[in-house]
Specification:
This protein is an all-alpha fold and about 90 residues long. It is about 70% helix and about 0% strand. The two termini are about 45 Å apart. It comes from Tursiops truncatus (Atlantic bottle-nosed dolphin).
């Protein structure tokens, strides 16, 4: 009887995994067919181009004041600040 229960459990788990992978495959195909990831990349790029700030990414609080030293922000400096702010946010979890 134990073998039968194990067999049923294994079959049930296999069916669940198969269904999960089928849903994942459907989702992946949908994203590819409708080019959702390309759209998100474009929208993110457009947002950062028109409103380049850490606030736009949600990495600063509304009352936080960003220091402006009078120099332009380089890509490297921006990336360092994004990484620093992201690290601060994730350290809370």
């Amino acid at each position: 009887m134990a073998v039968t229960l194990r067999g049923r459990l294994a079959t049930s788990q296999f069916g669940a995994m198969e269904a999960k992978s089928s849903r994942e495959l459907q989702a992946r195909n949908y994203l590819e067919k409708h080019r959702i990831m390309e759209l998100l990349t474009y929208l993110t790029s457009a947002l950062l181009f028109s409103r380049p700030a850490l606030k736009t990414l949600g990495l600063c609080t509304a009352d936080e004041v960003l220091k402006d030293d009078g120099h332009g922000i380089t890509c490297e400096k921006f990336m360092l600040e994004v990484n620093k702010k992201t690290q601060e946010i994730w350290s809370a979890f």
